[in-house]
Specification:
about 80 residues, mainly alpha, extended
Length: about 80
């Protein structure tokens, strides 16, 4: 099996993150890789925002969590 398929098949989601910030050099490579990710029939333009301020990242996470709970609650009510 080729190396690309091995990586794709062994990929796992991670929910426990280290408190360390990603090095800027690594961040550049991650962002570049993200721009090559597949999109819906090539019609979605990727927008990648790197938040390097921990306080802002934590605030965005809280807002995202509240929005996610609201969406899921609304979905359950409509069933």
């Amino acid at each position: 099996m080729n190396d690309t398929l091995k990586v794709l098949e062994s990929r796992r989601s991670c929910r426990n993150f280290k408190p360390d910030m990603v090095k800027n050099e690594d961040l550049k490579y991650i962002i570049k890789a993200g721009t090559y990710a597949a999109t819906g029939m090539g019609k979605q333009s990727p927008i990648i925002i790197a938040v390097t301020d921990k306080a802002l990242r934590d605030e965005i996470s809280k807002v995202n969590m509240k929005a996610s709970v609201t969406v899921h609650s609304d979905t359950l009510q409509n069933l």
